[in-house]
Amino acid sequence: MTTLLSFGHGYSARALTRLLPEDWRVIGTTRSPDRVEALRAEGVEPVIWPGGDLIPALDAATHLLISAAPDADGDPVLRDWQDAIAARAKRFAWVGYLSTTGVYGDRDGGWVDEESELRPATKRGQARVGAEAAWRAIPGLPLHVFRLAGIYGPGRGPFEKVRQGTARRIVKQGQVFSRIHVDDIAQVLKASIDRPHTGATYNLCDDDPAPPQEVIAHAAELLGLPVPQEVPFEEAEMTPMARSFYAESKKVRNDRIKDELKVTLIHPDYRSGLAALLRAEAAD
């Protein structure tokens, strides 16, 4: 049986699961016992991890997806299961690691692609570079690395904050971000599973890197609500986490997912993606 073992079965992994054939078995890890029934209701076999025994799942798995982020001590999956994964490396048909475009660091609004030098500007980005290298170091592993831009989709859009009046249009001169709708993450992962290319790296982003304040303004316009006032970055009160996102400005190229995986983006820009979110809300 074709079996996906999904480490950290969260937002993106759940979207992929919905695209897999019905005869696939999906095993997903979760930290929270409260999520066990929710995963089971989606047709996923839940396993508590950290803390649970994943050897039976690793023995059954033909495909691995790693969504769990590195922490201060490195990659948590490899910390617990590196030897077990390495011992089974050649049995897997496909292994996907979800990384971040943060590995490229700040480019002053310039372009990067998969061949660009890795020079992360944040601790999170540095941890991802280390995690990517650790996964690549496992001999015989059919690894595919996916560097994700900012993720949005159902339940993860700007609409709620705009409705509540808490959205802010923080403006930093020259700042641009790349984004990706979760449905496009899912279709790229599925395309890679169908067209495996061991050792490949893919940027996952749409065609329209844009300043964050433009996205907020467009969301307000779609809702027919007032566009929030601009707040200069230097004057904005933000958490250290939020402020760190403004430490990097770059545009990310996505040609490889189109050329190699033959992907046509469902949402090629944030306008398409936000409109789809509103249509889905109206249909519920």
Q: What would you say this structure looks like, in words?
A:
The relative contact order is 0.14. It is built from eleven helices and 13 strands. With 284 residues, it is an alpha/beta fold. This is Nucleoside-diphosphate-sugar epimerases.
Features:
284 residues; alpha/beta; Rossmann fold; seven-stranded parallel beta sheet; two-stranded parallel ribbon; 11 helices; 13 strands; globular; NAD; NAD(P)-bd_dom_sf; Nucleoside-diphosphate-sugar epimerases
Summarize the structure.
By secondary structure, the protein is an alpha/beta fold. It has a domain at 3-152 and 180-205 and 253-266: Rossmann fold (3-Layer(aba) Sandwich), CATH 3.40.50. The chain has helices spanning 11-17, 36-41, 55-60, 76-87, 123-136, 159-164, 182-194, 212-223, 240-245, 255-259, 270-283, and strands at residues 3-7, 25-30, 45-48, 63-66, 94-100, 111-112, 143-148, 150-152, 169-171, 179-181, 201-204, 230-232, 251-252.
